Every structure is written in C-alpha cells, then in structure tokens.
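Re-running the complex after MR caught last week's input typo. The corrected sequence lines follow. Everything else is unchanged.
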Amino acid sequence: MVLRALMAKEIRALFVSPVAYAIIAVFLLLSGYSFAMTLIVSKQATLVHIFFQAAMQLVLLVPILTMRLFAEERRTGTLELLLTSPAREIDVVLAKFAAAMTVLLAMIGLTLAYALVIGRYGQPDWGPVYSGYLGLILLAGALVSLGLAVSALTANQIVAAVVSLGIFGILWAIGSFAALLPPPIDNWVLGLSLLGRFTPFAVGAMYTSDFGFFIALTLLGLFLTVRALARR
Amino acid sequence: MSDHGGEGVAARLDHLSKRYGARLAVDDVSFGVGQREVVGLLGPNGSGKTTILRVLTGYLRPSAGAAQAGGFDLVRQGQDARGRIGYVPEDAPLYPHMRVNEFLAFMGGLRGLQGQKLHKRMDLVFERLALQDVRSMIIGRLSRGYRQRVAIGQAILHEPELLVLDEPTNGLDPRQIIEFRGLIRGLAAHCGVIVTSHILSEIERVADRVAILLDGRLVAVVRMDEIAAAGSDLERTFLELTPGMGNA
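Corrected-run output:
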C-alpha cells in the first residue's frame, strides 16, 4: 500500500515534468534517424547498431532522469516528510527506481516499431533482437540504480548529473584501459566494462555472467541508495 | 514540577544526545510531552531545537539515549513510532505540482489510510483547517498561509498522538498568526503538541510548558502557570536562563 502510493506519486511526478518527454523525444529522434539511414544504406534487417546507439544514449540520458529524484527532495525538504512517515527507506528507493524504469521502458518500448518494420519488410534473425532488448533493459536498470545512489548523496541536481555521467562514462569505457594493465588485473577491469558486458546481448550471444553482472550492479546501486538515505 | 503535563505521555526523550562529527548538537536532554499538552521548545539559534525535533520524528538517529513517540522507540520500533507522529518541518515543505487533495491522499496512503476512511479524514481536515475552497488547487499557487495549513493537514490526517511543529508561524502575517494560535490549541485537544518558535509571545500564548535549550543542553522545563504565579513572564524567564545572548 505504501509502496503503491509512493510509486503512483513518483510516476506522476516524472510525467508531469517535461523532462521525461524531452528525454523520450531526443532518444527516439536520434535512434529513429540512425535506424532509417542504416536501413536505407545497408538494407539489412538488423537492429544491432540501434542497440549500441541506444545503450550509449542511455549512458548520456539516464543521469538527466535520475539527477532530481533524490536531490530535489533533499533540496526542498520533502525528503524529511517522506522519511518521517511510516514508509521505509527501501520503499522510497524502490518507488523511485520503478518510476524511472517506467519512463525508460516506455522509451525503449517505442523502438519496437523498428522491430516491426524489419519484421514486416525483411527476414530478421529474432534472437539478437530479443537479447538486445533484454540487454537494454538490464543496462537501464543498472544505470538508474547507480544514478539514484548518486542523487541520494547530494542536494544539488547538477552535481548529481555530472557525477553520474562521470561514473557511467568510466564504466562504459573502462575496457579500453584494460589493455594497458598486466594480467590478471586486465581481466578484472574488463569484467567491469558496461560496453563489454552489453556487447554479447546486442549481437545475440547471451551469457549468464553478463546477466548476473547487470543484476548485481542494479542491486548494488539500490543498496547504496538505501544506505545513503539511512546515513543521517 | 511534572515531567510531562498530561495524564499520559505522547513523547519522551531519555538522556538524548546527538553528535554531528565532533560537534555535540544535543547533550543529554530528557523531557516528556503529555497527551493533550502543548510544549514549547525554546532556545537561541543553534541550540539544538530542530535536531531534537528531527530525532523525535525519526529523521535523525540519536547518538546516545532514546526517544519514544506513542510508546514506541524511534530506533527499534521506528515504523510504529513514525505512524503515531504528525510532523510539519520548518518552512513546511510540500510538492508544488500536486493539488491539495492529491497531496493529502498521498500522505494518507503513506500512513495506511485508504478508501472511505481516507476520504472521511480528508473531509474532516478540510473542514477543521478551512481548506474546502482550495482543495482542488495546485499547491504551488497557494498563499503562504494556505500552504502552512496544508502542511498541518497532512500532519493531522491520521490522528497522530504527537504533533511536531518546527517554526510553524514563519512567514505568516499577523492575522494568520492569531488564527494559528487558536488552531494549535484546538489540535492539542486531540494529541500532544511540541512546537518551536522564535516568537516568545506565541509560545507564551499556546504552550502549557516550555523546555529551554542552550548550546544543546536543557536548562529548564517550566510550566507557564508557574511563571505567571511567580509574577514573571516568558521573556524575562528566557533571558534569565540564557545569559549572555543579549550581547551576541
């Protein structure tokens, strides 16, 4: 009941602000342009390039979505209202996570139109399409939970966005530093790469280790968010 | 001098201390709030008033000692204790994009109110706080006085045993302050109230007792009728108990 009340409030708050619509519009505009251009040029019924571009766009756009979720409540003092109600910290965190994921799932869901187009006019290999979408959802979950943790640590939205972007950028590109490191450290670092973990999903080769990585990262982010709220 | 003024205890602090890093903000404070009693919490800026209220509402954890509300420990039985408290933080934070009725329904939902019970409670709050005319309005467009009433509305919606008000008259005009005074006395018929204010005359008019803090320590808990019986007033008592503040 408490969780339902919190989720309804969070989802409404995201959709009454123009931020969610702006993020969805920019995402669809850029991915739609890429989809159309690639289809015209290559004439191949595949979404692999769309998945990579969408993943990169998530890295750039999720900080804008998550930056206000806690920072705004902390700045305006409404966090005090929430945390002195019978709601638990985990309820507040899960509600915000669910609300942000609702926006992202709607955004990713709208790109199913591309899958319908290639299905209608071509003969795509559906395996990579399914795994690509699963990879995007898992990546979104991990990014949202980490973005929430950062937002819970500050009252400044800009700081939350910049720090989140920095963390996502490092985790995305960390694989390129691995080549400079001696074994076995290079493998450990490679294992932290969001790009490295996402790539198998995008090309249709799913591994349980990659699945587990994104789930673990999501749980870690949620745990850190709860800890950040409880530290007061 | 009684530790609390009512027949039961709405809240109780036992040797409460709160430390921020090396700084001791609240130092070994103990007092209670009786049911149907208004306790004024007074002290200069930085004396620990807001910190005590934040511990008493479960927002902050005590560094030592204990706080109880409605018979429940704020740390060990936090959820039960918080369910028995209504809290209006300083500056009455609200969600400006929400409508008044939507906000109250949300806050009621957090306290487990739903359906008919929620709507009955909301109607009662609208009536008691004279919010009927603005019930469908967006909070961000309300005057300061109405916003303050909405903040109190969410705090009394679930019929708490303890109402905690941090500087509730901040930003109100004189007419609103007078109305507010009557409102607090009315609310105290149903629960214990602990209130802070910089305006001594406000506290003098609404409180049954005052707890006076200085540098995080409780220097006195006195009944208003005892002050009057001694031929003194709150201003004089406050200045006597907080020496040196006039030179600040």
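None of the earlier attempt is carried over here. Residues 58 and 140 of chain A are 7 Å apart (CA to CA). Chain A has twelve helices and no strands.
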